[in-house]
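pasting for ref
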Amino acid sequence: MNHLSLPGDSGQAHREKSERADSLAMRSRKRLVMLAAALVAAVIVISGRLAYWQVISEDEILSRADSPVRTLMPRRGAIFDRRGYPLAVESYTYAISASPNQIEDPAEVARQLAKWLDPSMEEIWNAIRDSKKRYAPLARNVDIPTGEAIEALALDGINATKESQRSYPNGALAGHLFGFVNQEGRASFGLEEYYDRELRGRKGSSGGAGLQHRLRPAQDGYDLVLTIDRVIQAMVEEKLAAGVEEYSATGGTVVVMQPETGAILAMASYPPFNPNEYATTPEEQWLNPAIGAQYEPGSVVKVLTLAAGLDAGIVAPDSHYDDRGTITYGGVEISNWDLIAHGRTSIARMLQLSLNLGAVHIAEALGRARFYDYMQAFGLGQPTGIDLAGETPGLLRTPTDHPWHTADLATNSFGQGMATTPLQMVSAVAAIANDGVLMRPRVVDRIVNGETVVRQNRPTEIRRVVSGKAANETSELMVSVVEEEVTQAILSNYTVAGKTGTAQIPTPDGYHPDDTIGSFAGFAPVDDPQFVMLVKLDRPNLHRGSWTAAPLFREIAVELLQLLGVPPDNVRLARK
């Protein structure tokens, strides 16, 4: 029997088919949405773990016991003189150690090592025979060939580790400038300590396993290029050592400075210090006497007192005063060194003869406030700011300090009752040579990274102390000192300005009855000073700075002018 299709049957079928298709599409969209969500979640999780591994927990990952990390040590920056000659570098040695718990035959290992190391076979055997020990040091500072030979033996339980070590290839040359770096890498004194952050670089690391492995390269330290000239430094040290011996002094210091820039060309002290041998050197010799040893400067200070008086208009180059030989000031009797009353005396003659009462006359006329303002402006009683660790500020008591006495004004005017360092004194005199402007002394010219200049240490003006007129008048009066009285400092073909100092040495019981410190501060050529130099000799056998320090100044200055290539006065002035 045939079934006939009723009207509307085909529409129903179409609707059912459409509904099934919509349902399938909806389920597909849901699956796509769920899949997309799962993918996004996976990306977030993976990204988070990567961030965790790479950034958030770097220290945790690197410290895991199952991910051993090796520290990458940077190279400490080198130090060069102004011409590029290496003065401080990194050298390498080996440290030999043992893991006794990994050694099967201690006697045989000791026998083989004894061929290369200083410890005897018995000493080595005693160090490694205990099989329960995990570590035993055997030797340090082993030279490279020996260390490599021990490495080549490939002995189980014996470790040869290369270590960096600070080395100063010139030995004691400029040793006080550097300070030193100990075996643990700690820097002390001098350039090494002052510039430790720049020199030491930054450690790196390498370690981890699989995805956790991470490399952070070490960053080597920067290098220093100094203002010091190695040739000048060596010459100054040689002359100083000879002078100490000639005058039977216990020690001495010489500082050579460019007055216009503050650059130190040489800084030498005797006895010398070899930073390679710091561990066997008495600790008191680690200190740089040029910046860390105070002394009473004596009559060199008279040029500062005079410059202050000229600047303030208290005196003029042609002024006179009444010199009575001895006065009582602030309850203290003060005399000229020669105990002579010179009567009506010119300011020029006062400086030439180094008369104490002339300096007192100027200081009294200035008054307390102005006198100490000038002395502080010259930098006395405060650090110079040089880029070396270990500088001491000296001592200058003022009326606001306790104790201070009225007599201090008089004694300070001629350099007694105060304390300075050699660098403070040469810096103050350099201000006179530099038309009255005080510069900050410096020993580093620039910091470099390869050929790239990281920082240039430019000349830095601290302050104007006196006018150019007062400075030039003081310079001319200092020339008269050399030409009229301290002829031991005269240089042929060059005009020299200078002033001696013969200072007593204070002790707990007063001043030493015999010992003195002889000094001479001077500069040349006077029309265009290329250097200022202070020579200081401790306890020489001749008790006048003009007999000891001045001749040594001349010997150094003769060679210094040649090394600097300074033409003689007649040639230079003719060119002008």
